[in-house]
Amino acid sequence: MEILINAMDPREVEPWQPPESTSSPSHLQGRGHFSLLGYVRRKPSRADAEPTLSKSCTDKLAVKQFTSVVAFPADCFVQRTDNAYLKNLITYSDQYDQVGFERALGPRGRLANISGDGHFFGIEELPQGSPRFLFEKPTNIVGTASPQKSKAANTSTMWVASPNPSGNAVHEVLVNGVKQGYKQWDHRQSKASVVSRRHLIHLARSICTDMSGGDTSDLSLGYRLNEIAATISGVFNQDQYSKMKASHLRYEAIELKARVKRSLGSWQQNSGDSEWPCD
C-alpha cells in the first residue's frame, strides 16, 4: 500500500472514510480504503469487473510461506521439504517498501502469532539500472503536463507451449479461460485444458496406475510402490473434486492453511467451485 500511495497524486491520497454499513474489512475492494493496512484484500480489478473472492497476490504469497508452492493434487505425491518453499522474492528496488513488506509478509507483522509454522522468504532487490519488465504498468510522473495513462485489459490469455522439448509449436491457447476452438457453452470433455483441474486429476490417476504396475521396492520408505499407489489412489477414486481435496492424507496441510487464514482474519472462503463430479 505504501508503494501505491507514493505513486498517487498528493491530492488523491487523503484516506477514505469507511462506510458505516461495512461491518467487515473483507468487503473492501483490492485497492479500496488504502489507509486500512494489514487486511486481507480481494484481487485488484477494473471498476466494471464482476465481483470476486479471489485474494490479492500479497495474501496468496503470505499463505504460501506456510503451505509451500506444492498444491493439490501434487502434494499427494511430493513431500513438503524445505526445497518446496520460496527462498527469495526478486523485485525492483522502487517496488519494495520494507515497512509494508514486514507488515504483510514478515514474521513480525500480521503473521507474528503463527510465525513458528512458516518458512518466510526474503527480498532480493535488483540492482539499479536493471532492464525493466517489458509489460509492466508505466509509472506516471506526478506533475507532468500530460502523464502517461494506462488501463488494465479485461481479457486474460494463456499460451501453452508444446510438451515436446525439441519443438516450438503451440499446444493450446486460452482466452478468458476458454480453450480456443471451443465455444463458451461447449461441455465436451475435450474442451478441458491441460492446466485444468479435471485434466490434473486424470494425470494423477494415471501416475497411480503406473506406480502400481510393478512390485519394485522403495528402500528409502520401506514400502512397495504398489502399496503406496493404492493408498494415494484412494484419494483420486472419489467421485467429487471437493472430496479429493478433503482427503485424510491432506489433513495436516488443510489444518495449517486454516490456521493461517484465521490469523490473517477477514478471509472469506472462495467456495462453490469444487462440487463437481470427476469421472
TrEMBL record:
<dbReference type="InterPro" id="IPR042935">
    <property type="entry name" value="Tad1"/>
</dbReference>
<dbReference type="Pfam" id="PF02137">
    <property type="entry name" value="A_deamin"/>
</dbReference>
<feature type="region of interest" description="Disordered">
    <location>
        <begin position="8"/>
        <end position="31"/>
    </location>
</feature>
<dbReference type="InterPro" id="IPR002466">
    <property type="entry name" value="A_deamin"/>
</dbReference>
<protein>
    <recommendedName>
        <fullName>A to I editase domain-containing protein</fullName>
    </recommendedName>
</protein>
<dbReference type="GO" id="GO:0002100">
    <property type="term" value="P:tRNA wobble adenosine to inosine editing"/>
</dbReference>
<feature type="domain" description="A to I editase">
    <location>
        <begin position="46"/>
        <end position="270"/>
    </location>
</feature>
<dbReference type="GO" id="GO:0003723">
    <property type="term" value="F:RNA binding"/>
</dbReference>
<dbReference type="GO" id="GO:0043829">
    <property type="term" value="F:tRNA-specific adenosine-37 deaminase activity"/>
</dbReference>
